[in-house]
Amino acid sequence: MEKLEQLYEGKAKKVFKTDNPNEFIIEYKDDATAFNGEKKGSIVGKGVINNKMTELVFNMLEEKGIPTHFIKLLSDSEQLVKAVTIFPLEVIIRNTAAGSVCKRLGLEEGLKLKTPIFEFCYKNDAFGDPMINDSHIIAMELATADEIETIRDMTYKINDILKPYFFEKGINLIDFKIEFGKTNDGQIVLADEISPDTCRFWDVKTNEKLDKDRFRRDLGNVEGAYVEMLKRVQS
Ligand code: TMP
Ligand code: ASP
């Protein structure tokens, strides 16, 4: 399997065409950004860790009935995936208050939410990924009402699978962001990644943060947190 034309370069990954129109190659990078690209850096080993963690988590989700774009790992930092058109949506679930919801609504970090909060953001860097709702999505033709329903149902199911999966590994899943895509034959699948870049992970016993907040907030031992999270997922 060979990388052909580069289709896209994002902040943390590159996507390449292959000689099969139904398959892309994703290359994970060590580059890290925060606050919509305002803060830039690099986390040594992150590309390899996020590639491997996404492989393990997506395989586990597939086994539990969630369709994903993942096909197979190609190397430490590359994976083969189904070619999809990504919905320009960031789909967020929050089980515990942290990050932007605390700033926006004055909630205390660590507040356990009575029910998960579901949010959509419009994936658009120029506008800072603003939060939107179903009505915006349908009006702007980002997805249809039926597609929104599929995405919402799958996201809640994914949360119901991920919470106990990580809890068994001593991790509280505080919140996460996922993305969905549509394959060439029209199936909606989980795409992108599930990693410390895209989730908040707190150690169950100590509440230690084991995710990208260590980079965002200069908490130190960023690399160590990524290494620890891969170890937990591999256990
Ligand atoms: P937030 O609290 O900053 O809105 O983040 C919610 C979750 O989404 C958190 O797990 C981090 C993740 N996230 C991304 O993956 N990409 C992003 O661009 C942002 C802002 C958050
Ligand atoms: N806001 C993203 C994050 O903190 C990264 C970025 O937008 O530059 O995960």
Automatic annotation (TrEMBL):
Keyword Translocase: no
Pfam families: SAICAR_synt
Family annotation (CDD domains): SAICAR_synt_PurC
Domain SAICAR synthetase/ADE2 N-terminal span(s) in chain numbering: 6-232
InterPro entries to which the protein is assigned, alphabetical: SAICAR_synt/ADE2_N (IPR028923), SAICAR_synt_PurC (IPR033934), SAICAR_synth (IPR001636), SAICAR_synthetase (IPR050089), SAICAR_synthetase_CS (IPR018236)
Catalytic activity: 5-amino-1-(5-phospho-D-ribosyl)imidazole-4-carboxylate + L-aspartate + ATP = (2S)-2-[5-amino-1-(5-phospho-beta-D-ribosyl)imidazole-4-carboxamido]succinate + ADP + phosphate + 2 H(+)
Protein name stated in the entry: Phosphoribosylaminoimidazole-succinocarboxamide synthase
Organism: Acetobacterium paludosum
Taxonomic lineage of the native organism: Bacteria, Bacillati, Bacillota, Clostridia, Eubacteriales
